[in-house]
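ping. complex inputs:
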Amino acid sequence: MITMHDVWKTYPLGDTDVHALRGVSGTIEAGEFAVLLGPSGSGKSSLLHILGAMDRPTQGKVEFEGLDISRLSGREQTQLRLKRIGFVFQTFNLMPTLTALENVALPMRLAGAGKRQRLDRAQHLLERVGLGDRARHLPRQLSGGQRQRVAIARALANDPAVILADEPTGNLDSESGAQVVNILKDLHQEGRTILMVTHNAEFSSLADRVLRMRDGQLVA
Amino acid sequence: MLDMALRNIWQRKTRSLLTILGIGLAVMLYVYMSVIMNFYNKDLERQLSSIAGKVVVSAKSEAANGFPTAASVITIADAEAVLRHDGIDVSRSTPVLLQPLVNNPAPNMPPLVQAVGLLPGRETAYLGDSRVEGSAQLTGPDDAILGAKAAEHYRTKLGDPLVIQDRTFRVVGVVETSFELLNNAVIIPLQTAQETFIRPGVVSLVYVTASDPSQVDQLAKSIQDANSKLQAVSPGGMSRSVEKAMSNQRAFFAGVKSTIIAVSLIMITIVMIMAVADRKKEIGTLKALGAGAWTIIGTVAAEALVLSLAGGVLSIPVSWLRLEDKSQMDFNLALQTVLLAAFVGAAAAIWPAVSAVGVDPLESLRHE
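pong. complex structure:
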């Protein structure tokens, strides 16, 4: 589903260059639950952002369902993110003025879905993550774990090909974190492709495959 | 994205309220400038029509250009020579001495209250067909006929005494008219005016009524040709003269109105730039989720438009309540106000919207 060919990401920093990624190659297969594991600063998030069409590699190629996404225009990348990729962020990133229901419905709204259709589906997705009774709550009225579950529901809104989760448990207590990971596991069992970035090695046992990163490279 | 814009506005109530208030005040000022300009334009049209068949003779000098002004000085001998011209209806013609009593704060505008000295028995030369409560004739040396606004200024009514320059007058008539120059007038006998204001032997103007209104232009030319120190302006000439004077006023008001628009625009732009900066993370998230440029622009523009329109629309009833003559706030002016507010909102949204579109989703996701 996602193939990386010698991906480099370099940031200029004054007189020197910082290589966040150094020739990363690999594949995420459809239906796979892969965990990208590594210490802080190893390049995990940089790689995730490139795979999620939010950033472009300085060098190399990334193919998403056979399409070279590193050459897409900004508008094409936006459309790809909207329709084929679901993101779950470490800091939840919910819209503070929208209810849980409206947050989940937001990607569908951006994709042009009708109001009734998107609200019905959003309600269904919230029930899927166990928050059907919290639909009218604003994010500030939800706990951290609940917010992250809303974020997962939102990531599923447009039935994406892949879910990319960047440290989804990073801001949660262990109980909430376990809840979130269990939801991701369930989604995987339904056939979803999931790539989760984490620095917590405990989650590696849940994955089909563990990709370890260190200093911008995938290591064995 | 209007609902998101409305919620964003509600979330920052204090800032939104202050912005709406600021826009409302600016738009109110715009409305007042428009009302004042409209009023003066209409008043001048009415006054020009009131001097149909009349010739206004004044001293030929730069200071005497425009509508009748106290700066013009004519000797009484020259004035009497004018009145001896053929083709004049003497009973409706008079020399006039003008003396400002309360100056107008706006530049180059007629005084707010002005003393008008004219020959007793020739009052109709100045009053025309205006309705006068009381007497329209100055029978005694201390009689005074006041325009309604002058009477209001001095807080006097028919029969009351009126003290000007230590001289006590008796109000024998009050004239109510839409003509500003009459409304602001304190009409007294010419000799009394010359004594009171210590201007012996001079007048400001001669109001001449043609015996045959169709000959008024020829009469004006004849008077002017007879005395090189004088200029005689017929209604046509007066109109051109007034238009020249008014062009300065229009430029002044246009300048004030442009400044109001610019200030309002800058105010909303600043508020929206701050709003975009505050919500960088939200905007970044929207972009990460797949919001296109037009969605982002629409959200920012909607917010700016709502703030601006709210201020503009609220200013309409407030302006209306504060106007003395409520009919001055007509549908056209109200529509102009709303359109102005919409324009300000739309224009002010451009820079912040472009800035929002340029937000890098990655930077915003890292933004705390």
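The mean pLDDT of chain B is 85.
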